[in-house]
Write a structure and sequence with these properties.
19% helix; 70 residues; four-stranded mixed β-sheet; alpha+beta; Cysteine Rich Protein; binds zinc ion; 2 helices; 4 strands
Length: 70
């Protein structure tokens, strides 16, 4: 897959955030290029991976989570 922006991807040991969509434990956190951040559970992180990659300046992934957008 080719993208114009390639956000930095970081792996973290433990994530305490909750998914902004459904409230489940977050597996992925996004720092937006426009400022602010979003958190996603595994389900929503994979479902929205294309959009996440487009708007992210940095992405943090919980250790062990296999993200579809990586
Ligand atoms: Zn979710």
């Amino acid at each position: 897959m080719t993208t114009l922006l390639s956000p930095a991807i970081d792996t973290v040991g433990e994530m305490t955030e909750r998914c902004d969509r459904c409230g489940a434990a977050a597996k992925l956190e996004v720092v937006l290029t426009s400022g602010g951040d979003l958190a996603f559970c595994g389900h929503h992180a994979n479902r929205h991976h294309a959009d996440i990659t487009k708007v992210a300046s940095m992405i943090r992934i919980e250790d062990g989570f296999e993200w579809a957008g990586k």
